[in-house]
Predict the structure.
Amino acid sequence: MTPRNCLSNWLAHSKARTGEIEMKAWRLGRGVACAAMALYGTVALAASRVDVRIDASKPGARIDRDIFGQFAEHLGTGVYGGVWVGRDSKIPNVRGIRSDVVAALKAIRVPNVRWPGGCFADEYHWRWGVGPQASRRRTLNASWGNVIEPNSFGTHEYFDFLQQIGADAYLSVNIGSGSAEEAADWFEYMTADKPTTLAKERAANGHAAPYKIKYVGLGNENWGCGGAMSADHYVEEMKRFAHYTRNLDPAQTGATATKRIAVGWDSLNSDYTEAVMKAWKDKVWSWDIEGVSLHNYVVGGWPPHLPSTGFGEDEYAIALGEAFRMDTLIAKQAGIMDKYDPDKKLALVVDEWGAWLAPTPGSNPGFLQQQNSQRDALLAAVNLNIFMRHADRVRLANIAQMINVLQAMILTDGPKMVLTPTYHVYKLYVPFQGATALPASYTPGLYRHGKVEMPRVDVVAARDTAGKTWVSVVNLDPNAPADVAIDVAGVTANGASGQVLSATKVDAVNSFAAPNTVQPRPIAARREAGKLMVTLPAASVAVLALQ
Ligand code: AHR
């Protein structure tokens, strides 16, 4: 099969479908013959114009702003150093929480923060993190580097941080090494409005009013670090925790009741999702859940070894090609959920995702520190676009992790702070928070490098609550600009303007020495023959508002 035959095979299969790219056809189209041919290296393909049709008259699901959530685990300097510096620190802070980080996070309107883990959550005991700082128990963080865990950042500090950045709580309770009694006590401590002993203790520790808790995770990866439980065993534990982990605040009922998230898919094995959903279908009055999780990282093979700096097109293509796998995983998990929950009552919660790369040379490997490049910014955009296309089911997601760990928004080193390219994607995407998805149909074209192939462009559109239409376009081709023609049915648009994030190299990063290497800059679309025409630089992401 020649490159041209392979491409027409792909194009024949890639008829655009309203509401989403025909990803399934993309996979079929690339077939065995294409894969074999691709072994011969990069195939030069003419970069033709991409025509996008957005139908503003057919609004889809509401994009829950919680899909732009963050994850902050007691891991490396994610919390200690990244968020918490202590009241006596020379780094400017409010009650121990660093002010530069708070200001940066406020600007991206973080909707929720998942805490205290991850694997750490299943060895976290809340009692050690309340009360006077001086008497807090010092323990070891056995999950992450066996370093001292001072417990200085506990329940009150977490809620103070949330209040400072304007985010909601997503707590994970300890099923792996904790008990249902311990989880029940923690929730009584945080939420009881009556003067129980624990509520009085909370008040004595500085917070008389109950804390608001939007989400609770019932364990974390209990198929692995959370106790290596079989799916059936987990389901039995989860049901007990779902019942006893009670929010006792009468003001948090109905629409504001804490939503319980059970552990699901581990990206390789669907047993948990199947068992949890089956149990939910037959549930009795005493327990319920509102979501099932999915964890999936881009690793490029285990152990993670893709470099976060100084890489070329090979590592660019491997990571981004793998990023599209998220679509398949969501479709599979959603398929299982649909079997038991056709009305989509439960949310699919992607509460850990992102690029897990080789540790920064010289850093503690247990701290999962890595740099963050323009490639990773595109990886974030691709994933967020996938979540938005699945907005009817994906209603909460948390990138791993917020600061200094894995695919971070922010890197800190003592008093220094730098915003990563991924941070800038989150800032560009603020208008999509709470917007309504609009169907975008287009034939995406193909970017291929070696054995890897993927759509050349990726597009989503949405209408915000003020009625403005927004479009995100990602050009995944690192070698050529993309000409995109946008046609919006149901809206008269005279032009469009916004911002584009591009870089001179796919491995460009923002460092403490050069913090502004990757920065968004203005971009505009012109109106030509009734369409909005925009040219995206190679390897870039743009978000535009229609005028
Ligand atoms: O995010 C790092 C770790 O990855 C989390 O602690 C765990 O849940 C997952 O395996």
Q: What stands out?
A: Residues 263 and 461 are 31 Å apart (CA to CA). The two ends are 46 Å apart (CA to CA).
